[in-house]
Design goal:
This protein is mainly alpha-helical and about 110 residues long. The chain has 6 helices and no strands. The chain has one domain.
């Protein structure tokens, strides 16, 4: 392989890695967007609750994670039952939503930056 082919392969790998990353901010934007049906938002929240229940069954200390990551934002102990499902739902929502809406919202967010 020559250098040009290696650069192209690296660029393609980087593009795939960027697309596969979890974009919680995009999930929050989708959660607030009126173009996304309520059923998909509800499904994401149900999956977020299920994910939190799985984490609790595995005995991952959510209270400690809430204390470590939530204290800079003023999130106190005891609200992890509300905060973590929403965060998980926002991580899942870009994968449940129609790709055209996700791309359109990403373009709108890029224009505002």
């Amino acid at each position: 392989m020559n250098k040009q082919q290696l650069k192209m392969a690296g660029a393609q790998a980087a593009t795939v890695a960027i697309r596969r990353r979890v974009d919680i901010a995009l999930g929050f934007a989708l959660l607030r967007d009126k173009r996304l049906p309520l059923a998909e938002k509800a499904l994401a929240l149900v999956l977020g609750i299920a994910g939190m229940l799985v984490i609790q069954v595995l005995e991952v200390p959510l209270e400690l994670l809430t204390l470590i990551f939530g204290s800079p934002f003023g999130i106190e102990d005891g609200v992890e039952a509300i905060v973590w499902p929403v965060i998980l739902a926002c991580a899942i929502l870009p994968y449940l939503s129609p790709q055209s809406l996700v791309d359109q919202l990403r373009a709108e967010r890029a224009q505002h930056l």
